[in-house]
Amino acid sequence: MKWLPRSKKSLLLLIPVVLLAGGLIYFIIWTGNKNDSALDKAGSQNQVKEVKVTDIILALKENASLKQFGDFMSATDLSTKLVANATGATPKLVLFAPSNAAFKGTDVTPLASTPEPAKEELRLYHAAIFYPSAEGVAPDLTLSDGQKITTLAGRELFVSKSGSHFVLTDAKGRTSKVDLIYLKDDKGNRLYYIDSVLLLQ
Hints:
Elements: H1 8-44, E1 49-52, H2 56-62, H3 67-74, E2 92-98, H4 100-104, H5 116-125, E3 127-130, E4 148-150, E5 156-162, E6 165-169, E7 175-184, E8 190-194
Parallel strand pairs: 1-7, 2-8
Antiparallel strand pairs: 2-3, 4-5, 5-6, 6-7, 7-8
Helix pairs in contact: 3-5
């Protein structure tokens, strides 16, 4: 027992050392918990977020980053495509909107020089309509793994899941990642942001 202090004075000197060591251990544990919490918050950001807007078409026109896609869609009279069913229920519109940057990575020709039939298809290729049932029940517009979506141009897109994101694939195997943030308007229509242009099949 020779390591024990031989006087009360020496024992008192050990107290600050013990307190300092204990404080250091607590700081390490607290810092570790703080980092874990930060990681948890970062992970929670990888969640789908719904943004409410008044009108999808209006929101599209007002979004500068979607101007090129908006130019294609603005020439299409969507009202002629939205035919109510027998009960008078109107279908829901879904837009998959590529950004201006996405258009830069494609060989899509300007709208003015595109042949008329191709223009019509290209305008509607990224739009889909979900028709309500005969009873007027609104369809579920939530994307799901393995889902098949028919666009207004009569083309089919396949939905798959990759991590926290959904991916659209066309008949030629071209893919586009769907952003986790989407817009939903008062009528239930939706706009999903995608990172590439799915061209005509």
